[in-house]
Amino acid sequence: MAPRIILYILIMFMLSPFRADAEARRIVSLYPGHTDNIVALGEEKRLVAISKNDDGETLPQLKRFSARSSAEEILALKPDLVLTRGLAERQNPQLRSVLERAGVRVVSIEPPQWDDFASYLRELAELIGCDPEAAEAKLKKIRKSIAAEASKRSKGKKPAVFVEATAKELHTCSPGSWAAKLIELAGGRNAAADAKPIRSGSAIAPYGLERILKAAAAREIDVYIVQRGAMNAADMDALAARPWYTALKDIKTAVVPENELSRPSLLGLEAGGRRLIKIFYGE
Fold it and tell me: Measuring CA to CA, which residue among 28, 105, 104, 108 is closest to residue 66?
């Protein structure tokens, strides 16, 4: 192969937006978890737009897109990377093909499970030009710090914690879910460890009022947490207004935002872990 042709191929490879080591400088994030982790890694300056599902206080100056926003709207910001997830792609199935035809790289990464979070962070770090080792080290540092504080505050006592994931039909967090793992890290134990996920891999599990009342009467719940978010709008007033609330009169109750309890992110991990420790053991 002629040297000029080889040189041309190498130049085209270096300029391609799809090469594996391309460092994205203008990123559109269509999933709040990706946004949170980019911010946590100190690279929020690379974001040019985020999801309408992102928290209101997150980068309020940026454009926000819904899962069904058009490719033309996104292309107007001249991104070199669009980060998404499977759910968003299913809601807007034509988006990827249009963006890729326009030369924009699209990467879909599913929200990771607890044990897969380090691998997810490494992949994300490479995409945005961060050191994967440093990203993983930050995760280890946060987890170690939360575990150490929980151990110090708990003095060997582990409160039994029930999480209300949805008020309707009273679903809870499934064993192995992010919420269950975070509760464990913060020094608690899942009071619904026998709950079965609604389907394989799901983060929520049916539980029902009868089982809750039975567990409360048997003093098998020390803390009742309402996860407030898209699937559950309940707050403390709504909880107190329920006819059966008196069953929780001797149980500590609290509301925790979904992004701090169930969203796989460094920001949520740290904020949620600290909040849970305060709930479990006081200020």
Answer: 28
